[in-house]
Amino acid sequence: MATAIEPQRPLTRGELATLIYQGWVHQGQREAIASPHIIQLQEPLALFTDVLNPAQPRHWAEAFIRGLVDLGLLNGFDDGTFRPEAPVARVDYAGMLVAAFDPPPRSDREQVDVSRLFRDVAAPPAAQFKVVDRIYRSGAMSGFDDGTFGVTRPISREQAISALVNILNLEAGNPSSLNRYPDRATLSPWATGAIAAATEAGLIVSAASPAPDPIRAKEPATRADVAALVYQGLRLLPAA
């Protein structure tokens, strides 16, 4: 039976006490109390017929997708699917990074107007402006030689990994870390240090793990790929 949220109704003293106590439980400061009055969310992946389907093998990224859905960083589609193998636009990935990591601006990019810098970025109040502005000024992502950010262009795997490494301020990794990838020669020179760092930090999740898996640097990053990347990146953040 559905429970009405009643957002305009005054909060009672009992409800306030419950909210505060549940906050302590979430922070690990109190033991959870079993109560039929605590609202439980429906299992989110039950809605994703292409991720959690008893008739199909378990998807390799299920746990990462579940984690980001729980955090409100990812959603599915109206038809009940998640589409884990669909490519991700650069502006959408930028939005995920901004929402997940709230990156500060880099001092040398604070005064940049991205609507003038990139001819495919509309001026404010366009929704894409704020996302591109935040991600560019953080130094995590840049544009292309043709004067575009590539707003709707699918982000490649090496671009997605490098942007996350930049967000996390990881130092370039040891090139020997790339030896596990049979197609490492396909990496762009600018991406090798970041891919090595991501490998050493455990950011890259192999769909074929524990078997060696190609890095597929130039292929579009899928929704499953970025779910795993961002989830692993969040694990590296210091505890609040």
List keywords for this structure.
single chain; 0% strand; 8 helices; mainly alpha
Largest sheet properties? none
User: What is the 3D form?
Assistant: globular
Gap from first CA to last CA = 36 Å
Number of domains: 1
Query: Helix share of residues?
Result: 25-40%
Overall average pLDDT: 88
What is the number of strand segments?
0
Q: How large is the radius of gyration?
A: 21 Å
The residue ranges in which pLDDT falls below 50 over 5 or more consecutive positions are: none
Question: Which structural class best describes the helix and strand composition?
Answer: mainly alpha
The DSSP helix count reads: 8
User: What is the helix/strand order?
Assistant: HHHHHHHH
Strand content: under 5%
Question: How would you characterize the overall build of this protein?
Answer:
This protein is mainly alpha-helical and 240 residues long. It has one domain. Helix content is 36%, strand content 0%. It is built from eight helices and no strands. The two termini are 36 Å apart. The mean pLDDT is 88.
Explain the layout of strands and helices:
Blueprint: H1 13-26, H2 62-70, H3 90-101, H4 114-117, H5 127-138, H6 157-168, H7 192-201, H8 223-235
Helix pairs in contact: 2-8, 3-5, 6-7, 6-8
Produce a short descriptive summary.
With 240 residues, this protein is an all-alpha fold. Helix content is 36%, strand content 0%. The chain starts with 12 loop residues before the first helix and ends in a 5-residue tail after the last helix.
